[in-house]
Amino acid sequence: MAISLKINGKNETVTAAEGTPLLWVLRDHLGLTGTKFGCGVAQCGACTVHVDGSPIRACITAYEDVEGSDVTTIEAVSGKVADAIRGAWEELAVPQCGYCQAGQIMSAINLLETNTSPTNDDIDDAMDGNICRCATYVRIRAAIKDAAKNL
Amino acid sequence: MFMHLAKPMNVTAQSSLKAAPLKILNVSRRGFIGGGTGLAFTLALAACAPAKTENAGETTGETTAVLPDNSAVASGPLVFISIAADGRTQITNPRSEMGQQVITTVAQMIADELDVDWDDLVIEQAVADAKYGDQNTDGSTSVRNHFTRFRTAGATMRQMLTQAAANRWGVDISECSNELGIIKHISGKTLTYGDVAQDASELDVPAEDTVILKSRKEWRYIGKDKPSYTIPKVIRGEGIYGIDVRLPDMLYAVVARPPTVFGKVKTFDDSAALAVPGVTKVIKMPEIKGNAAAFQQLGGVAVIAVDTWAAIQGRAALDITWDAGPNSIYDSETYGQELRAMARKQGTVKLNRGDVEAVMKTAAKKVTAEYYASHLSQSPMEPPAATAQWIDGKVECWSCTQHPQAARSTVASICEVPESDVKVNVTLLGGGFGRKSKPDYIVEAALIAREAGAPVKVTWTREDDVRHGYFHSVSAQHMQAALDEDGKPVAMLHRTAFPSINSTFGPSDQGSDFELSLGATDAPWNVPNMRVEVGKAKAHVRIGWLRSVANVYHAFANQSFAAEMAHAAGKDKKDYLLDLIGPDRNIDLSKDGVTYPNYGASIETHPVNTARLKAVLNKAASMAKWGRDVPKGHGLGIAVHRSFLSYVATAIEVAVDSEGKITFPGIWVCVDAGTVVNPANTKVQMEGGTLYGLSNALYGEITAKDGVIVQGNFPDWRVMRISEAPHNVEVHVMESDAPPGGVGEPGTPPAAPALANAIFAATGQRLRSLPMLGQNDRLTLAEEG
To answer: Does B234 touch chain A (CB under 8 A)?
Structure first.
């Protein structure tokens, strides 16, 4: 099944089996390996990408379901909020192994795009679907607050 | 010339001499350009290396200096450094990066002594090769075992470059000095390292004892908070992990492994799997040979496909009948009861001081407690993954491995090819925690790629990772103490029982001296009568290392029990702990009959020192304002533990609400890791190590039924999420001139007992069984105590 997708502003035609999750289309077919596999069942958030500006878990989203939508991945996410988040992430040395951080960053960008001064509870609500086994959570909270201040 | 060295386009790997580029997808290709032969070391940085490791598409192809590679040279300090004519310095990092920032740390040690500008560094990841010495990134060893070695490498290169400049000027080397890549003569003349790199390459390497290391006060990078090399890539999705490697015409595989260890495929029908769109081949995997799983593949059936999803779908369509094998008897609940019973009985004595039995009989007061901790899964966020490609009978692998040389030797032995025909490239690791010390998944990739006749990436799904791991050992411990009329301990007995890691590698029916030395036989108790015993325990799953290993359960028991003794004595927990540790001294374990490996270090350079232990304890207590009044429902707990040659104390304030919900108003950690290369990162590792310990203590539980692991994915296998995490973890790093200790692991052991002690202080309930919550969101306090 060939489907035309718009990924990071580029039109891509992908031929994969019907129902193939967007995650594997990004990683295996398009070489966009920044989006990570962590669980395959939408429990860890490592595969978070933006579809028309909203975060989704690419591991449970069939690729044909995003036909006609704008898909943005960690490699291309940009703008004022993305810059502020990346800046705070670097400044506070948030990532350890870094594997989950693409998903963390995609979730955090969405949070600040919808809420410019999140409380601790707002942060926990928005980020609770993103597991970090290195447990960088203390710095994730602090970095989101710093990024919010810098916006 | 056609070589077998295809490079995935997004991983830089040190390639060998005259390697010709093939078409590549995501690993940048770089070749050292060959010159003559027989020179002492590589000073070449050819083909303009990309700015940093794991870098896609930044090669410019311009050749600068030209010298041969160093593969013929036996392990020596200079295998880690190359200098280009334009002054850029390449450091080859032999240690695996899994989030501990070892790339940065290794560079700090080498670049400081070499005395080069931090911004001129290019860091390359070493392939598996004995010439780099020990590459096994395990046991928190990268600094503590290699501090002098890496510094000596830098200093040796600096000395040779300086000698080369002195020779050119016709002056004595004593008239020359160095600063950031420049050699200065007292006359004011200068040369850059690049200017003399070629000359230096023709000098003999000076003997190690003639190389002068900088004094501590001259350090430029060591002890400084240099920022991470990997973070800038990671936040842009450019970090390349084992699971990300891509090769031209690569296929993707997943494996249906026997549900029980040593289970076998009886029969299988692959017709439905082969009918899944995208599936190209199904192969039966070789079974484990012999009676030790070690680093072997587990067997089963592999499904190869055009993408990972098709492989997963194909695997689901397989119809396999398994021969469950000898471990199908394993029921972790029954086993846990047996293990607890075993810990109550006398075991093999491993430490004996005084006469415990006699004193116990006449004691004024006795305290007894039993502790239990479940199996755990390391579950790094990146599950195991590896890619392999065979060309002309030789195999090249790319993987996230903590143990590159074991990967190489195991692939060679199982594939029956010489080690020289196996190349193992090391990517970034999306966490390791001990799981990626075992290269079974790389063996799978090599075996499958050979059958496939194409490059193959093997990906472990999360279920594979959780169900087919090398599990942290389940453990039961029985503790007794005799107190005199003042509550002072006069005798202690510690019985521990757990299936040993040794069982993964050969016959074993009880914990090893090595595991006992992790928190049991080296308990720092100043008690005149003391005994440590180990009971029998057979393994029915693969047992493996997990961050801080047996320290996790031994520190949990010892540090919980110290607080229980204090409670029985009616004393302050921190003061009692200080008394239990006793006067300032280096503990001599040999006189109590203990075989003490001391983490591989000399007991002279790294004694078990009670002054340092008490100092971190006092500091953490003062950070937590120990002794203050806390609100109702709050409690302060504290624990201290030496592991991997470092001393860590953790104080935790918990709040337990009326419904049993736990939150963390504060956590305070003090570490004495001796000389610290990167204090900021040491703090990060303490935060991570503490929360890893808390996550496991609160939620971590792997169980088995009929030999099959019950949990499969998040959240059955539960780990801490942000809403469950503390808001503040304050870390203090002790200033110290002592030789370095470990940093990656020592933060974990005190976390669980500090938490248990805090919950006791808050609620009066003593939690002796881990996990404390498991799948529950609240403590069910009435059930324990």
So the answer is: yes
